[in-house]
Amino acid sequence: DFDDLVQRFSGDPGSKSTGGVYDFFPRGRMVKPFEDFCFDKPVGAIGWVETTYGVHLIEVLDRRSEVEEARVAYITRKVGASATTARDAYAQASEFAINATDKESLMAAAAEAGYATGEANSIAPAARSIAGVRDAAEIVGWTFRSEQGEVSNPILTPDFYIVAHLDQITEAGEPTLEAVEEEMRTGAMNQAKGELYAEKMVGANLDEVAAAVGETVKTGRNLSVKFPTVRGSGAGAEPKVAGAALSIPIGNMSNAIVGEEGVWVIAPQKVTEASSKDSYLEEQSTIATRARANFPFTVLNAMQKKADIDDNRRSAN
């Protein structure tokens, strides 16, 4: 039989120990005459082929459904603007900047040309990026060299040219009322809305409170002072809620709490005490590592403050 022939005559160490049987293999793995017989002949066919390795007696035992395969080669090439394209883009940006002498003309020209516009607020001298712009060192430097109301020449970024208008300069120190008026108004309105909503949140238990405002009772887990986020609520950090949850006795219900992003009434169900440890060397090591990492910046800031030095490195040409 076939196995007997293999043991007597085969010189193929890869299949002799298995009685001449090869596991399933794809096209492209075997030499071509051997492969052609295996893939072109029907299951059960027996025959022989000759290759550079010798003469092969083959029986096709089985075949899986063929899957078409293709060899794919990837050619990676950095595509950048040619010198002509870069020159034309700068000329177009320069013409645009010449016609934009103030904020109104800049915005009007941008709208007419279909250019995107945006705002970047509270730019710091050491900022590395601003809204919508990565690697913004050049535009940050221009900002701190310029006067309020100025319009820049075209500034090249890694992605596009920018023509900027310096709308406002905030001096160091206490902010003016105009600078914080909108933020204060928004905060006051949210506080007033929260207090009005809190007046409606009354009841003997959480179900009654929720029903009074058309809501349902939800369960929040793993709330802590360190991570004061009520999971599953969609809200952000709520430190007042976390503080109340850890101070109210189990089973009791809080009054309405006007938080950062909502009004809450809570009833703690379980408090997990912090586990005690025999050693806090790991925590000590973490604190020490952070302190060492921050030490150079802390010393530098202290020296600058003591020496009354202004860091104008970003303003240098």
3D architecture notes:
With 317 residues, the protein is mainly alpha-helical. It folds into 4 domains: 2-60, Roll (Chitinase A, domain 3), CATH 3.10.50.40; 83-166, no CATH class; 179-264, no CATH class; 280-316, no CATH class. 38% of the residues lie in helices and 6% in strands. It has 9 helices and 6 strands, in the order ααββαααββαααββα. The protein has helices at 2-9, 32-40, 83-99, 103-113, 137-145, 177-200, 206-212, 239-245, 281-307; strands at residues 46-51, 54-59, 155-156, 161-162, 257-258, 263-264. A two-stranded antiparallel sheet has the order 1-2. A hairpin with a 2-residue loop joins strand 1 and strand 2 (54-59). The protein is extended and about 100 Å long. The termini are far apart. The mean pLDDT is 84.
The strand line-up of the biggest sheet is 1-2
Count of all domains: 4
User: Cα-atom Rg, whole angstroms?
Assistant: 37 Å
Overall structural class, as computed from helix and strand content, comes to mainly alpha
Round the mean pLDDT to the nearest integer and report it: 84
- SSE sequence, one letter per element: HHEEHHHEEHHHEEH
- Biggest sheet, open or closed, and with what strands and sense? 2 strands, antiparallel
Low-confidence stretches: none
> What count of helical segments does DSSP give?
9
* Helix content bin: 25-40%
Strand residue content:
5-15%
Which outline best applies? Answer: extended
Number of strands: 6
Span from first to last CA? 89 Å
